[in-house]
């Protein structure tokens, strides 16, 4: 079957989604990321791998944090980074997505990092590049609609492997608004591919997509029941813009039932780690005591995120 | 093809060469993998005060684009202050000089060393860059040709030996 993410030699051509990537590729990305974590400790935090390459951050949806981590990763690899805040530029003047891409290709782009509110936008760009024979230009999906956020999923896997080593003995819980979460989809795909035997998804019925059981996960609508004896708790961000709508009561109400508090965390294994993709809503999905507690690995996730993005860019940009 | 020299004998000769030039300030940096194994031995035998450094130069190679990253990348580790320090770079086999060039670039990203010397077990010649070792235990009399790779191997019992591999 044709896989748009791999080239003819089975190597990574674009990173669009963790769904459909073989375990060897996922493991190779995590292995490549490991030595990059050390670069941050040097006096000169730069490697010459992508010297002379131009990477365009194409953010059709605002996200300062994700854009910044991609920018830092690219700069640590010595690439030239051009940030396009497309939300306020030519698409507003009526230019289509692919015309924007063609224009940037004419400026000798080597890689696009794409964030878009519509699911599938990075696929559209990758397919356009393939159809026009531009195989030396690569696309990284930095989050598309409700579909995928593969580098977030990868940095989560890196974090789990860092603290727990072996995926094949773990019980992992994903908690919160799964319905709107591209992060959750990427996490489920990666955890399953890497051999985690039990992935639990915990949240209110109104925030669960249908067909979750087909992904091979166990669904819980009782947080205490779902957290029992888990090794890893992955919290999801509750998006403020969804609050007070038909799906949800107030933030305080959500916190009461679905917020991660010390007493709920006590049901997990004593050495369980707590993760969050950020930005956190303290007092909505996570209690401050837990967020700042000894089991939280939320800030290491951010640091690992740079190394993982460096790994992906270095694997794509070697051509 | 002549039999390859014994690695332990060469190491002993290298230690004799280096000993008079090692000071309190000297630090050692081994290049993965063969150079790092050697550097461990040298570090102990020469009684070097600073902890041993190790580097993987893959990120700095000029053929990175063509070769890509090999999957067994190691973390570089420089556990001492590079600034103003005399450093001896250790590699098992010196060939084109491109690995040494990459290693020099990497070292300077940690600071400005006072001087850098190169210690190798075997110089197989055929240099493509202006690089010359200060300490060298053995020089091959005739070129091997690019189809053969000479490298240090480490057995399960920790013993080191030189091997010739067809590539």
From TrEMBL, chain A:
Question: So what does this thing catalyse?
Answer: carbamoyl phosphate + L-aspartate = N-carbamoyl-L-aspartate + phosphate + H(+)
Q: Which residues bind carbamoyl phosphate?
A: 65-66, 115, 149, 152, 278-279
One Pfam family in the UniProt entry? OTCace
Set out the biological process GO terms recorded for this chain's protein. 'de novo' pyrimidine nucleobase biosynthetic process; 'de novo' UMP biosynthetic process; amino acid metabolic process
Q: Does the record's keyword annotation contain Ion transport?
A: no
Name the residues that bind L-aspartate.
93, 182, 237
Q: Which UniProt keywords apply?
A: Pyrimidine biosynthesis, Transferase
Every copy of the Aspartate/ornithine carbamoyltransferase carbamoyl-P binding domain together lies at 13-161
**Is Transferase among this UniProt entry's keywords?**
yes
Q: Which segments constitute the Aspartate/ornithine carbamoyltransferase Asp/Orn-binding domain?
A: 170-315
Q: In which pathway does it act?
A: Pyrimidine metabolism; UMP biosynthesis via de novo pathway; (S)-dihydroorotate from bicarbonate: step 2/3
Give the enzyme's EC designation: 2.1.3.2
Which InterPro entries does its entry note? Asp/Orn_carbamoyltranf_P-bd, Asp/Orn_carbamoylTrfase, Asp/Orn_carbamoylTrfase_sf, Asp_carbamoyltransf, Asp_carbamoyltransf_Asp/Orn-bd
- Superkingdom classification of source: Bacteria
> What Gene Ontology terms describe where this protein resides (cellular component)?
cytosol
Q: What's one GO MF term for it? A: amino acid binding
SUBUNIT field: Heterododecamer (2C3:3R2) of six catalytic PyrB chains organized as two trimers (C3), and six regulatory PyrI chains organized as three dimers (R2).
The family classification in the record reads:
Belongs to the aspartate/ornithine carbamoyltransferase superfamily. ATCase family.
The UniProt function text for this chain reads: Catalyzes the condensation of carbamoyl phosphate and aspartate to form carbamoyl aspartate and inorganic phosphate, the committed step in the de novo pyrimidine nucleotide biosynthesis pathway.
Query: What's the protein name?
Result: Aspartate carbamoyltransferase
Automatic annotation (TrEMBL), chain B:
Q: Superkingdom, according to UniProt?
A: Bacteria
Spell out the Pfam families in the cross-references.
Pribosyltran (PF00156)
| SUPFAM superfamilies listed in its UniProt record | PRTase-like (SSF53271)
Arranged from A to Z, the UniProt key words for this protein are: Glycosyltransferase, Transferase
* EC identifiers of the protein: 2.4.2.9
- CDD domains in the record, alphabetically? PRTases_typeI
Membrane-spanning parts = none
Query: Which GO molecular-function terms appear in the entry?
Result: uracil phosphoribosyltransferase activity
Taking every annotated instance into account, which residue ranges of this chain make up the domain Phosphoribosyltransferase? 23-131
PANTHER family, per this entry? BIFUNCTIONAL PROTEIN PYRR (PTHR11608:SF0)
User: Any idea what this protein is called?
Assistant: Bifunctional pyr operon transcriptional regulator/uracil phosphoribosyltransferase PyrR
Give the organism the record lists: Denitromonas iodatirespirans
